[in-house]
Write a structure and sequence with these properties.
Layout: H1 4-11, H2 15-23, H3 30-43, H4 49-56, E1 61-65, H5 72-87, E2 91-95, H6 101-113, E3 118-121, H7 128-137, E4 141-144, E5 150-152, E6 159-162, E7 169-173, H8 176-188, E8 194-198, H9 204-219, E9 229-231, H10 236-247, E10 255-258, H11 261-273, E11 283-287, E12 301-304, H12 307-323, E13 331-334, E14 337-340, E15 350-352
Parallel strand pairs: 1-2, 1-3, 3-4, 4-7, 7-13, 8-9, 8-10, 10-11, 11-12
Antiparallel strand pairs: 5-6, 12-14, 14-15
Length: 353
Amino acid sequence: MPTMADVARSAGVSVATVSHVLNGTRPVLPHTRQAVLDAVDELGYTTNTLARSLVTSRTRSIGLAVSAISNPYFTEILQGVEAAALQEGYSLLIADPHDDPEHERKVVQLLHERRVDGMIIAPSADPRDLVAYLGRHGVPAVFLDRVIDRVIDDRTGTSTGTGTGTRFDQVCAENTEPMIRLVTHLAGLGHRRIGLVAGLPGLSTTSERIAGYRHGLAAAGLARDERLEVFGDSESAGAERATAALLALTPAPTALVTANNAMTIGALRALRERGLTVPGDVALCCFDDFAWADLFSPRLTAVAQPSRDLGARAVRVLLDRLAAPDGPARTVRLPCSFVHRTSCGCPEKGTDS
């Protein structure tokens, strides 16, 4: 098996120069760098990652902790993380915290014990133990999809204190404005009783989308009815139960907004079981677009999140943090797109941002 010394002899440089090229530890002249890379290809040299990690204290690996990996949204995020990490020469270790605070802390500890250089985490609704562990051990981390800057009561929409998330970098999509757009769109079609199937209480995505729903009602001049806000707990079965409760109201809502793709499936199931059609009986808009949303009949009007871009951006933010550990924490927000289809009761129009 060729060694680094063999590469150095073939390229006509020192072993130290080969090390700098392969590890990126010092700038090397372009022609020298190319000579080293050509020698690596010619000899079939591969780096000894374990040995390098012992010298540099870096494993060039990233830990990814996200729940519901089977969810198409998080699957696309994972693809974005993986592609960006691979491009930068990093491997990926993946774990599912199951949105359970205790399991989340154990998963993060396990990844830390595997000596990952940093972590990308979608935090649970109660991330206090997670934050404490990361802070205590000085683990570089980026919070993905969900932010923890504030603690918000999902039922009242009021802030109940300041979280500790500002110590960590965060990457997420816009949530409030896209939800306002869904609600005002339905109101513009004449709907006055618009129900919301919200996600798991405590998550920032849930809080921000509830806030957007309420702002949307206010912008449309509609009074808020607390009975029209139900929690589907971010999963299909919960959304089915929540939608059934909405449909049992008198008067029932004429339009629904679901706050993620899994809950959209549950809401559609509840409507079908009651013999109700979309949009004939109940108009429907959803947060989260997904690959088969345009295969439904009618096709689903949705907010599309930039899931792969979120994953890729989280990697770049984490690598920036590894390069500058003492820099100020930042929160990056990416815009969503409104995909106008027909479940809202409108003709097909397409996508705009």
